[in-house]
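Re: beginner question about structure tokens

> Can someone show what the tokenized structure looks like for a real chain? I only ever see the sequence side.

Sure, here's an example I had lying around. Input first:
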Amino acid sequence: MSSVAVLTPESFAEHRSGLGDQETRGGVPEDEAYIPTYLEAFPPLPEKGTPGDKSGEPIGAWSKIRPIKSSVITQVFHVPLEERRYKDNSQFGEGEEAKVCLDIMQKTGAHIELSLAKDQGLSIMVTGKLDSVMKARKEIVARLQTQASATVTIPKEHHRFVIGKNGEKLQELELKTATKINIPRPDDPSNQIKITGTKEGIEKSRHEILLISAEQDKRAVERINLEKVFHPFIAGAYNKVVQEIMQETGARINIPPPSINKDEIFITGEKEPVAQAGTRIRKIYEEKKRKTTTISVEVKKSQHKYIIGPKGNTLQEILDMTGVSVEMPSLESSSETIILRGEPDKLGPALTQVYAKAKSVMVAEVTAPAWLHRFIIGKKGQNIGRITQQLPKVHIEFTDGDEKITLEGPTEEVEIAQTQIQDIINDLLTRMDYTEITVEQKYHRHLIGKNGANINRIKEQYKVSVRIPPDNEKSNLIRIEGEPQGVQLAKKELLEMAVRMENERTKDLIIEQRLHRSIIGQKGEKIKEVRDKFPEVIINFPDPVQKSDIVQLRGPKNEVEKCGKFLQKVIADLIREETNTKIDLPTENSNSEVILITGKKANCEAARDRILAIQRELANIKEVDVLIPAKLHNSLIGAKGRLVRSLMEECGGVHIHFPSEGSGSDKVTIRGPVEEVEKARKQLLQLAEEKQINNCTVELHAKPEYHKFLIGRGGGNIRRVRDRTGARIIFPAADDRDQELITIVGKEEAIKQAHKELEILIKNLDNVIEDLMIVDPKYHRHFVARRGQVLREIAEEYGGVTVSFPRTGVQSDRVVLKGAKDCVEAAKRRIQEIIGDLEAQVTLECVIPQRFHRAVMGLKGSKVQQITRDYDVQIKFPERDESQGLDLHPQENGDLNSDLRETEHVPRKCDVIVISGRKEKCEGAREALLALVPVTVDVEVPFDLHRYIIGQKGSGIRKMMEEYEVNIAVPPPEHQSDLIKITGLAVNLERARAGILERVRELQAEQEDRALRGFKLIMSVDPKYHPKIIGRKGAVISQIRKDHDVNIQFPDKGDENQDMISITGYERNTESAKDAIMKIVADLEEMVSEDINLDHRVHARIIGGRGKAIRKIMEEFKVDIRFPPPGSDDPNRVTVTGLPEHVDNAIDHLLNLEEEYMMAIVESETMAAYMKPPSRLEEEPRGSTRGFVVRDAPWNAPGNKAPDVSSAEDFPMFGTVVTPRQASAWGPKKF
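And the corresponding structure tokens:
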């Protein structure tokens, strides 16, 4: 990057004025201006340095940057012909090899290219990231190259080094060599490793494994058993001795820590270093064993931790200073005996240190109420933190629920800390208080609020702490702590909230489930706004799986009502958007029950129907309270709510609410549609009565695949058991964790009988037998066709029974069935039924022109599959005959049978659909197929309406096609045809035809309405009134347009008739809009305008920042004030417009302001004159200048000429000249 300096005559003169010592150089007199040379004025840029120069350092800096390696690599490898797995490809690139490569590319993300060499070998190029390439290479070798296998034998203890940490070494080796390596499990005595892959890969892998084993052969492991008590001497204080041995020998030594009671020391490494380390350790052991002796002392158990020190540091310190090891009893042991082991002359000093450490710490206790502890600690531990920072050796311990605070540390420091804590306690006791209130546990979560909103607000507002017990404590006691005044205020508010909640109510809103997502909004944003607006109301939406329309509101009565009305407005808005109408609900305080809907007639009727449907559903909702003893509630709810959930589902999704556990309430609430509520009430009371008489529940387990068989088709089996025994049998739901659990509920005798019957059924199902049956081979294909679909259905229906038919090519009629006895018998009966159907099977032909086959089949064959299931037949469509081309006789005007009659004489093979099954079912299927043949009818629609039928980007016609399930063809514009063709099923055509005609009527009504709205009225208004009619930012004219539903256009600046205003809309509306404008004009004509002279220097002050001051004056005096624009002939003239008395008052006010501001301006100008430097008071006129001149310029050389500064080619402009912005009368703009 280069820099350019711009030199002006002024800047050059300033520069030259500082060069006093150079003014007289070159023989130029001091009084004459110095003329610089061209090179002095414009020095050349330095030339690019050579690599060896220092000037080249910036370039060299780039060379230090390391090149970035590409993250994409390419590998090429070759598979010889004899090792290719697929050799019989008729055309290269289309066989299995290509499929395999495509699969590998999808799995790994690498790019693979195959090419065939002259020797028929396969060249493979893999491109991608390193990890992807390695994985792809391994897959290619395994799937495209024939695999060989070999074994390599290494010692069993070396296997773990081949596997590596978390198997990483093995994975790396497999990727690197593109082989599969199988290592025997640890419990397998074999030491052989099996390698599978290509010959080349096996050799590489074998070599790498042997290298790993050879490396481990060089290593040695030695275990030395030495008494645990001598380990501290071998390790040394702070492990100094053992680290020294490891540094000197290079071996690795592992001494078990004191907490592990093992004598074994491990030494690993090269053989010779291991031997040296072992010798050193044994020498230390022998020496210490010979020289050391022991003494025992008794020290209180509570003092042991001070002798041990943090992380055993004190023991290490004693060992380092005296060479004596201190053996402490374990913390779990009750022993107080400490053993000192060392040389006799060092035991004395060591014992002294032990006693000193034991007595160096003091334990003291301070008594304080438990509720005060957290205030003593302070916010984020501030109070206690100050003490511990000042006295870092003191440990302070608080115990939950205990009124004692324990201090531990050096005696002097503990005493100081004790005094400080006692002072804090005394201070807190004088200014802190607490109280306890009783609130039923069921209201606790409402007191807390969503995400703790309520309780956090109370804590913050009153500076108190509120402890609400968790649910598992089942306590009603709430504790409030803090300053006395805050505690009382918080108590009062919490009790008020509890009273409100006792008076709270629940309300159900009926909202169509499809609208729930719209109300909730993306990520719950919209419902969050509603909850923020009504924080005391809990809004519960039903689970989408329940398909329920009931939304529950719960909270204070008034808030619930307000929230309900707000949600009704939201629903109305949604209905308005869907139906394109305007819906006005009655105001909150109004007694009116009228809802006003405005819009097109059809849309209004649709919106009205939707609102009435919601009203009917609301009227149909009933809430009933049932009294059931609280002790029966748990048994009625059932394990994980199974029983009550099954009851709610059985009764049409009613909501059954039990009181919270521990409340003691007997009231159970049932809410939902009237009929379903009554049904649920009867069943609930019946169950409660059964429970009260003989409340018994039994559970048994059965494999999930048996459940279908136990339930039976349409629930027949289980219903028979229920009817015989009177017990209720509950099977697990899809989301239950234990899918085998079946629950039986009822009287003792009933559940015993039901349990016995189910056990017999399950036992029979568990009794697996194998049976044979004879099935004619000609029917085998029916059972195994379509990937054995018939056999799969039999297995699902009959408890997972396995049916095995002979393999293809084996001439046998024996079919083997395996499974539970009852299932096998039932499956045999089902197979016989199917064979009976096949024996009675006939084949019918159904002739439908080939062009309709796709429509008859439906999306992915859905329609024909449904017919196959409904009529239990097989339907086969012919192969498509492409040679037929387009049909010569297209079907028109609903002539369904024209093609069928033509084909009755000579049916084409490609038109014949074959149906196989029982005769009566085949005939029914044929009728169903013929009903699916699309028919075409013509509908006459005026050509000028076609574009409205089509809609924007085809949206209108697409919506109709989706709604009526037909195809609608509109003729192209150049045909100018009025006929629109509708093609589809006969049952849909009439609906579609009626829909289009209805749309035509709507469009014609819109055209008529548009013509009425197109009435145009022209009125003349003096242009000077136009700005007032328009208003500030168009406010006045916009209100007129809105009130009268018209469009008002003012003339453009260049128009001839500047006084003409056009009004477009309904005739009566244009007249009323004209009257409104004329009223404004009449008011304006009464106004007068007066000019006054205000010194232009005060204009900015009168206007104020962003015009605030002048707007205030205009609003106060009800006038319009105009200031002159910049550059005006008379900058002092200000125009005031308004009613005469208002204008006079405004002028008086403006003149007063001018007088006030002018005093300040004159004063500031006087001060500025005094502050002006003397040198600037009398400036001498400058003489003429010659401009900027240099000597020895290139253009002064012979043959050259000076550049033309006026030439645009020699001196091009860098951009347009920006004129300075003129100052606004409103003052400088602020941002």
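Each token stands for a local structural state, so reading them left to right follows the chain. The first strand starts at residue 72 and ends at 79.
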